[in-house]
Amino acid sequence: MNYDELQQAWQAQPSRVRVSLDADVLLQEVRRNQRHFTSVLFWRDLREVGGSLLMVPVWIWIGVKEALPWAWYLGVPALLWIAGFMMVDRMRQKRRQPKAGDPLRECVEGSLAQVEHQIWLLRNVTWWCLLPVAAAVGTFFAHCAWLARDAGWLVELIMAGITAVAAAILWGVYRLNQNGVRKDLEPRRQELVALLRSLQSN
Amino acid sequence: MSEKEQACLFRTWVGQYLALIGRIARAYTASEEDCEDLVQEVLLQVWRSIPRFEGRASASTWIYRVALHTALAWQRKDRRRRERFLPLLEVPAAEEPGESNTGQTDEIVGLLYAAIRRLPKADAALVLLYLDDLSYRDMAEILGITESHVGVKLNRARKQLAELMKGVAHELR
Fold first, then answer.
1. Which residues of A touch B55 (CB under 8 A)?
2. Which of A46, A61, A117, B153 has a CB 3.0–4.6 Å from the CB of A50, allowing a cystine?
3. Which one, of A91, A104, A78, A130, lies nearest residue A198 by Cα?
4. Which percentage of chain A shows pLDDT scores above 70?
5. What chain B residue is nearest to A100 in terms of C-alpha separation?
6. Cβ atoms within 10 A of the Cβ of B80, count?
7. Do B152 and A20 touch (CB under 8 A)?
8. Do A36 and B81 touch (CB under 8 A)?
9. Which residues 70-129 of chain A have a CB within 8 Å of chain B?
10. Which residues in chain A have their CB less than 8 angstroms from residue B141's CB?
11. CA angle at residue A41 from B71 to A58, to 5 degrees?
12. Mean pLDDT of all residues in B64-74
């Protein structure tokens, strides 16, 4: 069988897809789907950026209510830095998103750049997220330990325990991010690299 | 573009290009469920992309780009977020090659889909455009590569397709 016959057979195939709703209902559903998609993105942004911002007043309130030492308030710039970093990053990435109507190679390049940026973000989560928090929390605990230096070994032990739990949580968050890179993003990146290579290679 | 114009264009495009979208979706998925889901996702992407359509490319080129990009980016786990919506489409179960009672054409088409699914994704896109009888210029415009590059790649992809067709036919008999 030659290529022309293959083409003829291909073009003679009946359409297998049928719209199960009338055009207006289909349109309504697509709009609803789009609204849902937009709201998912909005809530994701709000959760990630708003979560850090919301923590600021809570942090200050706890500090005032419990009359905590000054080192407690180091958490405020750390939280503001994380929220600001995520907000700027999200806005910059939104502008760089690949557009579905662009030529395929450009779309693939855009998707690859996005995935690589996500990988960069998660690989460097220590620097832009965990380290500021760890520095603020660590300084606070060190300060508390210094203030309580005459209170006896039991208090010192409790302080050490709390510090260890905080360190374990930060380590867990770090591992979670690295697992995300390894299991989801890296395979996707390799897939896109292969796709781009096959579009580019002669 | 007003929402009314967007809606009007969407209705027209669905009427004109649903079969094309269905063919692309079927080529990139293994089950009817996935196919239905991918068609749905393409329709959503078409709806979202309409405000950016400026008419510089033809409507069919635009639809091919949107559909192929969506198909290449589509992952099965994405379906979770779409499961809550009404089923918009029906994709009847595909007959396996060799089971068809409606003649040789169905069998060839079944073999073609099976072979296309085994091609690398970019080659599959090129073969789909070729089978739809698009010009080299259109293919280059859709894929974002040069016409001469299309020629080189298409030659290679067609040979690969022919080899795969033999293999698929042999496996099924």
1. none
2. A46
3. A104
4. 91
5. B66
6. 8
7. no
8. yes
9. 98-108, 111
10. 103
11. 155
12. 90
Q: What distance in Å separates the CA atoms of residue A110 and residue A89, rounded to the nearest whole number?
A: 16
CA A110, A115, A116 angle in degrees (round to 5)?
A: 95
Residue range A13-29, pLDDT digits in tens: 877 666 655 667 777 77
Chain A residues lying within 8 Å of B40, measured CB to CB: 33
Residues in chain B within 8 Å Cβ distance of A40:
81
* Closest chain B residue to the Cα of A32, Cα to Cα: B85
ipTM for this model: 0.78
Place of tokens 């998925």: B29
Q: Please state, in angstroms and rounded to a whole number, the distance separating the CA atoms of residues A75 and A73.
A: 5
Cβ pair A104:B65 closer than 8 A: yes
Task: List, in order, residues 6 or more apart from B105 with CB less than 8 Å away.
Answer: A9, A12, A13
Could you tell me the domains of chain B? 1-94 (1.10.1740.10), 96-173 (1.10.10.10)
- What secondary structure, in 3-state letters, does A63-119 show? HHHCCCCHHHHHHHHHHHHHHHHHHHHHHHHHHHCCCCCCCHHHHHHHHHHHHHHHH
CB contact under 8 A, B19 and A108: no
Tokens of A171: 């380590």
Q: Do residues A82 and A155 touch, judged by C-beta distance below 8 A? A: no
Measured between beta carbons, the chain B residues lying within 8 angstroms of A32 are: 85
How does pLDDT run across B82-119, given as a tens digit for each residue? 555 555 566 555 555 544 446 677 888 888 999 999 99
Least Cα separation, residue A199 to chain B (angstroms): 6
Residue A143, both tokens: 């300060």
Could you tell me the CA-to-CA distances from B130 to A125, B79, B169 in Å, in that order?
A: 45, 29, 21
C-alpha distance from A145 to closest chain B C-alpha (Å): 48
